[in-house]
Amino acid sequence: SAVPRGLALSLALSLALPSVALENGLALTPPMGWLSWERFRCNVDCRTDPRNCISERLFLEMADRLAEDGWKDLGYKYINIDDCWSAKHRDAAGRLVADPERFPSGIKALADYVHSRGLKLGIYADLGTHTCGGYPGTTLDRVKQDAQTFAEWGVDMLKLDGCYSSAEEQAEGYPAMAKALNATGRPIVYSCSWPAYQGGLPPKVNYTILAEVCNLWRNYGDIQDSWDSVLSILDWFFANQDVLQPAAGPGHWNDPDMLIIGNFGLSYEQSRSQMALWTVMAAPLLMSTDLRSISPSAKEILQNRLMIQINQDPLGIQGRQIVKEKSHIEVYLRPLSRAASALVFFSRRTDMPFLYTTSLAKLHFPEDTVYEVQDVYSGKIISGLKTGDNFSVVINPSGVVMWYLCPSALPAQPWHIGREQVPGEGFHPVLL
Question: Which UniProt keywords apply (predicted)?
Fold first, then answer.
């Protein structure tokens, strides 16, 4: 039977239009796992520091921790190698090889072990003459060869950095690597540093193209083990949320960099804040900490089930800052599937706990709706909260209160159907 003309036209158009995301079907929710860089950097001194150097031992031990300590079951699946894993020179055939002293079994054996534990292995390369740490880079003529090598090793994710390359080389090389990875036939999640090297913003960065090339991308500078670093990332992301927020979605994510919870620079409250704010940003949850010695309190933050459920919400909408008060309280909102929402009340104060009073109506939630609210950290439930009801939360200095809200009675007009109708959408931060 003939296809109706309107349908035929729309089919033709849909075939002609570029896809809106990298066509590898991967990272439909933000990737979760562990990455070596922030905590272990480029420590290659295995003679004096065998426990903490970049070596197969480190990754085998972290894989064991992910598999045995409850991480894997919560979705933390990736064990990601960062810079400084390779030998200083390629082999006779021009292939990348792991440092033979630090990775005597080679990367394929490491990948096999990681897979045997129900996990996935990530690796690092750099689109340039050298990696940032001075190891062999992936120049344009090596892109296909390196993609093939990683696929043969059984790699599941590639982070492609951008040291020692020009803007022109990056514009050619990042899409070329996406093609090369797809051509291997192995599903490899592709993490790009491309926008970070171009300042993260239009016109230099085209987020439409980026979403067609990469599964996730670093937009901004590296995180350091400090609260100042977390705040600088947060400030940049939300100052530019009108550009960044629409760019994210299933298969293509903004990456504000690693979780540093469990290290040395964040207090307990600040650790809870990073976790909540990264979750609202729909950020990849890539921990960079020593899982062999992590404290119970840091582990509890990182293993919060409701938090992870919110982060992994299938709609994949990145949240926004919707209120910025003169009192240094900020409110962030992320729309979720099934008409639910996540709210984060964040205090930048440094004096004492602050009693913050507002209502869902003031936060532009739909009228005449009743919500059941769960506090993500305490687990406490508030039933029957109406949009117009005033409520108060006590927020500790540099801390958060995070809520998960589900409508228990929907309004006559369900606002959650269209993406443009979610609460707080199109609503710019105001100083009250």
Answer: Disulfide bond, Glycoprotein, Glycosidase, Hydrolase, Lipid metabolism, Lysosome, Signal
